[in-house]
């Protein structure tokens, strides 16, 4: 499939960061309200974004045409452009929602865990794992399609990712300072833990042999080993 819209007869407008998400989801970093960071139902995405997600996950951004997204959404191409002015704006809107949801859940998990570094560490690791299991397609597209983002939004997206990593970094450094973690390389350890959690989106299946809770239990053990958890 083509990357542009040559097969539709409609010229694709250039993405404008001010209009890439008409609902304003990347004009602000306001976080969505979640009743619990552990609760996951179906992702609440507008129909065009849900269609774009399915197509991007299956074919990749450059392998997906606007006409295919419109067809999946049950819209004409001009009708799709009425909501999102370009394919790039669909990608940006989708990734902004992904990151605001991820950050909201991580921050809620850490906040509810209290002040102890070990409990905060376990909470953020569990939150990252759950997100990358239950929002697998969104996480996968976010990880693989950063290369497809235009510069006007790419730095914003990288900023969100850095913010998530910083949450993990701060907890690991606090654990080392408190004597709970013994790693000599806290920043590297924090990066390794986050990478392990993100990687779940590339292979985990909710209907597979390994259940979600068991995966979390095993990965919490591994995460604690990475940071050198000192058992009291």
Automatic annotation (TrEMBL):
Residues 42-102 form the HTH tetR-type domain. Residues 65-84 bind DNA. Residues 26-36 have a biased composition (Polar residues). Pfam families: TetR_C_24 (PF17932), TetR_N (PF00440). This is TetR/AcrR family transcriptional regulator. Coiled coil: none annotated. Keywords: DNA-binding. GO terms for molecular function: DNA-binding transcription factor activity; transcription cis-regulatory region binding. InterPro entries: Homeodomain-like_sf, HTH-type_TetR-like_transc_reg, HTH_TetR, KstR2_TetR_C, Tet_transcr_reg_TetR-rel_C_sf. Residues 1-36 are annotated as: Disordered.
